[in-house]
Amino acid sequence: MHIDMVVGNMGYISSDHKRELRKQFQTAVITKVRENMFPPEEYVDHGCPECPEGIPLSWDGYDLDTEMHRYIAPTDHAACRVCRLHGSCYQERSIRPLTDEHPFGIIPLHTKVAQRLLQQIRPQVERGFENDKNKLSLNRFFTNRLKIAQIIGYLTDDMSDPPSLC
User: What is 26-40 written as a DSSP string?
Assistant: First the structure.
């Protein structure tokens, strides 16, 4: 089974873990960033690259083979219509996730899909998980250690396929 995307808790995963999952398994890991974490200096304004006039470029995808994000000039930005470079501008930039794994993993944090996952979907899943955990009295089994959680996950996978009685 291949997992395309994981929405996680910043407290449990480092940029090294994110990098390993991206490179080894092509899995996007999306987490919020801590308040004291900032994107690289050149992306502080919008969280993404900009054209020479300061308009944020649009993310156009991630290439697994080259490990590069592709950004292009937006086609519908109001400021582009009155820009001095209008008509001759085709800004394209490529950025490596190694720039900063947190904001530029397989799915950059500034994108609409990443923001929707973090702001709308993750809180719903968290509430459901917490509710199930309490109903089943599993609180005592949960820990904040990633390695122990991994081991429990592996053990659960082995037990989910009971031996046949035939």
Answer: --EEE----TT----
